[in-house]
Design a protein that fits this description.
2 domains, alpha+beta, Aminoglycoside 3'-phosphotransferase, Chain: A, domain 2, two-stranded antiparallel sheet, five-stranded antiparallel sheet, Phosphorylase Kinase, domain 1, single chain
Length: about 300
């Protein structure tokens, strides 16, 4: 779906979503971020909610996401769960618009610190220990073949010189073998903006669009990038805290520790590749142009955990 730029269309859409979930009239609304989606903090007669409008999100992927969230809820994992619908279909749909609603939860995006890193590590390990039997496979940028498939698309649609730089960088991470490592439910996008904290405790992990079954280590690698680099500069004490929190619940295997460095580089290149595609699809998005350089801006081409 295209972003709703017309104010009148947006207000009409939010009113229709509120009516579908029987939340009464919309009293106020404000945009609260979201890159891949449009998120709105909406006050209705029934309370305060977050309305999430899914953009370019295949319906099948969303339906699979709901299955994963049901599993997480069964194990009381701290996530922001979607509001049940009073209808058979658990989400709102109008043409290309798909929307879900969540009750607003308390908390705020955390500042990076040793205490926050330790808590994130602990909660990631908790997630990775939830049984994943019978869950469906699901598309995600965490899939092992994502980078090569995305670069193949980029080669056919973009600047060959720029794409060649990514292919050269891929040679540094192609030794990463996620398929031989322990597999679990992985969130896929653990960033400060996707976390709600109350003091130093996680109250909810948000935005499960990238959830899938994959290498636990890759989820840990993403958290390393997001919580152990400050202004894109690596801070070793933060990684020590992240590891400490994680291994208190789930010790890393020898094979995982051996691939940690290349897993972090793989995750960094994955982020850059995603935003390369975004900038090719919409050159006007300046943030995508900046973030396609994430791998190099963090110095991952020469980075080491030691």
């Amino acid at each position: 779906m295209r972003r709703l730029k017309d104010d009148r269309s947006l207000l009409s859409q939010l009113a229709a979503i509120a009516a579908y979930f029987e939340l009464g009239s919309v009293l106020s609304q404000q945009r609260v971020g979201g890159y891949a989606n449009e998120n709105y903090l909406v006050t209705t007669e029934a309370g305060v909610f977050v309305f999430k409008l899914l953009l370019n999100h295949p319906l099948e992927d969303f339906q699979q996401e709901l299955i994963y969230l049901q599993r997480l809820e069964k194990y009381a994992y701290p996530a922001a769960y979607y509001l049940p619908s009073p209808h058979i279909i658990p989400f709102y749909q109008d043409g290309n618009v798909i929307a879900v609603v969540m009750q607003k939860k308390e908390g705020h995006a955390p500042e990076k610190s040793m205490a926050v890193s330790r808590e994130i590590g602990s909660r990631l390990a908790q997630l990775h220990l939830i049984p994943n039997a019978s869950l469906p496979g699901k598309g995600s940028w965490m899939n092992a073949n994502y980078i090569l498939e995305a670069l193949d698309i980029a080669q056919h649609t973009g600047n060959k010189i720029e794409t060649d730089r990514f292919l050269q960088a891929y040679q540094q991470v192609c030794s990463f073998q996620p398929g031989v490592l322990p597999q679990s439910i992985i969130h896929g996008d653990v960033t400060p903006d996707n976390c709600l904290f109350i003091d130093d405790q996680l109250s909810a992990l948000l935005d499960w669009e990238e959830v899938t079954i994959g290498a636990s280590l890759l989820d840990f690698a993403m958290a390393t990038l997001m919580f152990c680099f400050v202004r894109r500069v690596f801070q070793p004490p933060l990684l020590i805290s992240l590891l400490d929190g994680y291994t208190q619940r789930r010790p890393l295997m020898k094979e995982e520790l051996g691939q940690l460095e290349v897993a972090v580089k793989h995750a960094g290149l994955m982020i850059s590749t995603y935003f390369l595609l975004q900038s090719l699809q919409d050159p006007s998005v300046e943030s995508a142009k900046d973030l396609q350089g994430f791998y190099w801006q963090c110095g991952l081409d020469s980075w080491s955990t030691s």
